[in-house]
Amino acid sequence: MKRILVVDDEEGIRLLYKADLEDEGFEVDLASSGKEALRKIEEGNFDLVTLDIKMPDISGIELLRKIKERFRNLPVVLCTAYHHYKQDFGTWAADAYVVKSSDTGELIRTIKGILQEKP
Length: 119
Description:
There is one protein chain. Helix content is 39%, strand content 20%. By secondary structure, the protein is an alpha/beta fold. The chain has a single domain (3-117), classed as 3-Layer(aba) Sandwich (Rossmann fold).
């Protein structure tokens, strides 16, 4: 079973993503901050991370950089409500960029596509 870490400071989003991804057969862990996410990534063996950009302790863009420096092959999907971040050079290291929605269909399709490509 593929393991996904959902990183978002909004509890409602974390719980929505967890429920919908578990319905698709994924094992899901949650982190509410960048620091918590880094600790869990170091301790766990995740196949993919979904990452919010706007968080209070470490921005998602900074966290993305830290993840890619230390865990180069760990896919990261940026999830944000803000379209303009897609133009930010710092987001280009992500494996995908999905605009947040209560309909998680695009996110799930994106995750499945990335994990199918991953050896």
